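FYI - complex with 4'-deoxy-4'-aminopyridoxal-5'-phosphate, inputs then prediction.
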Amino acid sequence: SASNAVLLARREAAVPRGVASAAPVFAARAENAELWDVEGNRYVDFAGGIAVLNTGHRHPKVIAAAKAQEDLYTHTSFQVVPYEPYVALAEKLNELAPGDFAKKTLLVTTGAEAVENAVKIARAATGRSGIIAFSGAYHGRTLMTLGMTGKVSPYKKDVGPFPSDIFRAPFPDARNGVTVEDALKGLETLMLTDADPARIAAIIIEPVLGEGGYLPVPTEMMQALRAICDTHGILLIADEIQAGFGRTGTWFAIEHTGVVPDLITVAKSMAGGYPIAGVIGRAEVMDALQPGGLGGTYGGNPVACAAALAAIEAIDSEGLLARSTALGEKFRARFAEIGARTAPYRMWDIRGQGAMLAVEFVTDFETAMPDAALTKSVIAHALKRGLILLACGMHGNALRIMVPLTASDAIIEEGLAIFEAALADALA
Ligand code: PMP
């Protein structure tokens, strides 16, 4: 088959540069936490296809369920002829989601589509139009969700203007000078200056900020948001697209705070590698739109529904929630060791929740400026040595861990050893 270089040249000629790839190699096959490129090089995968593979590449139960479904039918469109896997997945999600009340679930195909639909549902249910999102948020690349995404470059550059009635509040990031008190003050000010709370349909927040840097929302912040929403009749939307399905050690990251949202957006690791997403919410809120107001040709594809049911079953029966918590502790301890040994004062912060973990690189002890160049170099060296890593953060200087929760201890240790060697390369 073709070499990485040949495929890269074809890709550059045929695919727009706007779709960037982190790794300049092409996949040939993958299994659990390992991937092989077209030249036969093997990689340990700490990126999991951007937090999609909590159950690993090609989990046997996921593959078997998808294949069994393919032998029955692969598409009818739920809007033409409905099928049980859609209903069964909705029932399962209604049962798993926090909240002691009746719930309903809409299935769509991508995370951005889930967020778009959460906004539509919130607007229809409240009769209001305003949406409040946070700095550093990532909610997608469609125009509404891009408007809600709180980072200019590379996402929002050159493609505005964005839909109106989207407001921005500061995300609490104490280390960068924004305490919970500051963030709430900012929200209060926003509601006085621009965002009339009586016109706000929803506040949307990632319970652990994902693309923005793997920052958990402090419990007191989440509680305050719930109280503000209750006071003003605003719906609280938890965007669990990256943090959900065991990444943080619970089914949904917001469970760590005890706060119950009105709507939850899900995608990624819900289906172990198949494109499916959803909005879970209070039944009466979910029913706000009239028949025909929700949907799409492909929404809740039956093969993806079958895969999701199997992935959820695997997370449950294989103890992956507890595994996530244990992996988080392991990564914290090993990153602290590696930092002290190989890069003193350059690994500034190790943070996150469960196995949704990131480490931030800085220039030096004194100024502690974000060091995106070092982060990039570590990623490039790691790839050469056989480890797939991905960055995140407002300054591109955080390395995030999205390794399959099914990875063996041996593979995790192998990846960590490659990481340390790559770090040494980058600093040499
Ligand atoms: N919300 C969050 C929190 C995400 O992490 C992402 C994807 N990184 C999205 C929404 C958008 O999902 P998709 O890429 O499937 O549209």
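The chain has two domains: 4-55+319-427, 63-317. The domain at 4-55+319-427 is CATH 3.90.1150.10 (Aspartate Aminotransferase, domain 1).
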